[in-house]
Specification:
Layout: H1 2-19, H2 29-51, H3 56-78, H4 85-104
Length: 109
């Protein structure tokens, strides 16, 4: 169940971040409400995933890495943002870092 909550946290964060441009600098009410609600639900779900047993460092690494990589893809597909070699390299490094954290995260003190 903690990983389901983590997936919910990631999905809500992606929705909120994807809608941020639609807020027009937080001057449009309903997109702003959706963005704020998305982030609130995301943080609640993330905290519950941590409470459920995922180590905070691992949960945050997965949440932020998947969110960062996915928002670059969403930006390219739906927001007409360019995909550069630097962005692709950054995603590769993020994924490598999360894999490394997960491989070493359960080691004893």
């Amino acid at each position: 169940m903690p990983y389901v909550l983590l997936a919910l946290a990631i999905a809500c964060e992606l929705l909120a971040t994807s809608l941020m441009k639609a807020t027009d600098g937080f001057s449009r009410l309903w997109p702003t409400v959706a963005v704020l609600a998305g982030y609130v639900i995301s943080f609640i779900a993330l905290s519950q995933a941590i409470k459920g047993g995922i180590q905070v460092g691992i949960a945050y690494a997965i949440w932020s890495a998947v969110g960062t990589a996915a928002i670059i893809v969403i930006g390219a597909l739906f927001l007409d943002e360019p995909v550069t070699l630097a962005k692709v390299g950054g995603i590769v490094l993020i994924i490598a870092g999360v894999v490394m954290l997960n491989l070493t995260g359960s080691e004893a003190h």
